[in-house]
Amino acid sequence: MSDLLRLATAGSVDDGKSTLVGRLLYDTKSVLADQIDAVTRASVDRGLSTPDLSLLVDGLRAEREQGITIDVAYRYFATPQRSFVLADTPGHVQYTRNTVSGASTAQLVILLVDARKGVIEQTRRHAAVMALLGVPKLVLAVNKIDLVDDAAGVFEKIVEEFTQLTMKLGWAREDVTEIPVSALHGDNIASRSENTPYYDGPSLIEHLESVPVDADVHGRHQVGLRFPVQYVIRPRTPEYPDYRGYAGQISAGVVRPGDEVVVLPSGTRTTVERIDTADGELESAQPGLSVTLILADDVDVSRGDVIASATDAPEPIDTFDATVCWLGDKPLRAGARLLLKHGTRTTQAVVGALLERFDEQHLAADTEAESLALNDIGRVSLRVADPIVADDYRVNRHTGSFLLIDPAGGNTLAAGLVGDVLTAVEVGTEG
User: Fold this and answer.
1) Do the beta carbons of residue 62 and residue 113 sit within 8 Å?
2) Residue 219, pLDDT above cutoff 80
3) Residues 316-367: pLDDT tens digits?
4) Which of 162, 238, 306, 350 is the most buried (most CB within 10 A)?
5) Looking at the DSSP assignment, which residues form a beta bridge with residue 401?
6) What is the Cα–Cα distance from 46 to 39, expressed in whole angstroms?
7) Would you call the peptide bond into 80 cis, given omega within 30 degrees of 0 as the criterion?
């Protein structure tokens, strides 16, 4: 079992996500006493008899709603069994881009629904996004279960509908867990509640503590070395007259001195002579480490190049199909000229064709669509000015993802996944 679980929350506005996150922090004793005192005083001022735990996180949320920031907020908490990093994402439809960002590194996502509303449009949208991102584990938290009559029947109906959705989106039944909760009262959050006798599963925190997760959720050990070059180090000082190092962060694989590597896109082969860090040399380096590689030969390497394992190096590509989640206010159409950022390389890109738009509400592919609107998911063909070194997203999430950027304003317009990840989804075709 991994000692660290990366998770994210998702859900529509007013589903109680703030209260749930506050409850998780409170029940795991991850907030300071003075914070609780401040929340208690503020709750009393509002005429409440119990602390409003949403106030633990609503300060930042209010800033988002005022347009000051709409970024993902990261929360940290722990139990004796496991540590957690939680990406708290906004629920507004126009901030789906932040949900994509927060869930992109998650091993598990808690998707909230209001028991009174059930599975709604935003629920289906978020589930589709999680499926496309390859999030391996999903928890459906049916919140405010205390506010409905026939809670057992309501919960059963929501679970049935959600199960049909997730199975069509490609999840195995054992990878999805449904829990009825009341974040306000703490039912089934830290411990199982007597108020839900129809439910015999774990509490939310019990599930988070015990759920098996693959530490290599991004597939970064399934392929050989992928090392995007961030910077070429040439000190040209008397101490290091001939030093030439290539600095960056390892995005996949493991590297050791003596390994045969290839510099892409040029295809030049050489070997790794040394691995330098600020703390000295390393005998090996894993994904996520920032290091400087010293190569045995004096080869031509520039920022944006990729140093890869010679045994499974991908072919550089300048035309490819990709699945994108469109995040721009103006629709995407064929012929659009954008910037594509992949790893440390940014290059010009042209959208060759819109192959299909994915209707996440009906799990259907519209092959006649002429554009992608805000939050639409679709498959496009792309042509780039400079070849990129990418793996299929289903093989490696890190090297298979990219961003599309507005060349004029610099805004992020789309999150992209190399390959046809929609094939994992059971879709029909709109005629």
Assistant:
1) no
2) no
3) 999 999 999 898 889 999 999 999 999 999 999 999 999 999 888 888 889 9
4) 306
5) 417
6) 11
7) no
Bridge partners (DSSP) listed for residue 249:
290
Give per-residue pLDDT as tens, 224-241.
Answer: 999 999 999 998 788 878
CA distance linking residue 302 with residue 266, whole number of Å: 10
Average pLDDT taken over every residue of the chain: 87
Nearest-angstrom CA–CA distance, 285 and 257: 10
pTM: 0.80
Distance CA 367, CA 378 (A): 10
